[in-house]
């Protein structure tokens, strides 16, 4: 049993400062699997070490994707370790051998959570979802299904279902991304509109978007050169600008 703060400090450095120097890194299997099951930020940080054990030391983790799926909650777009988590999630979902229902479940859950995400997270997650469509064309039915649900109450997708195979994601449609096409931030609306067209075969590079911050977005907007915006106006006819108000009858601006 470790204090939460110490747990996080250990897991942050474990994958590059501890595991490479161990004669038997597999001895850390139990520690990492227990940490992965704790939840929250500790589970996110345990992913780095688990990734090394799975890919380099043949660790078999039953229900790994089920647990990864359960980590997707509204806080995932706000946590300090967001970039690390999505970098690893991108790697875990890169295999073309994953079943379509599993990838569709991740796409739907990420899209549903995106409805309350900040713009800097949306500019990262939309290309992330587009890359998943490129790797798994069977999931494109989410975009091209005619007569999709008109509102959330008709969506067959079950957000509360912990098992991806039971979430009915493949029966749904991606109305969430269509909603983001009306987002108040023009860059988000433009990014979401990409799904209205045929996706290119080449994947988007999201590495530069993983650590995008709200400050950077604001700074980018501030530095934009202002252009003259034509405005329509009604010439003032009365004291308070209304054409036929009572003040226009008794007062003049001359």
UniProtKB/TrEMBL annotation:
Domain of life: Eukaryota
GO biological process: ribosome biogenesis
Segments crossing the lipid bilayer: 31-54, 85-107
Gene Ontology CC annotations of this record: Noc4p-Nop14p complex; small-subunit processome
Key word Transmembrane present: yes
UniProt entry keywords in alphabetical sequence: Membrane, Transmembrane, Transmembrane helix
The keyword Cytoplasm appears for this protein: no
Chain ranges of the CCAAT-binding factor domain: 43-192
UniProt family annotation: Belongs to the CBF/MAK21 family.
Name of the protein in question: NOC4L protein
Organism this protein belongs to: Onychorhynchus coronatus
Lineage: Eukaryota, Metazoa, Chordata, Craniata, Vertebrata
Gene (name only): Noc4l
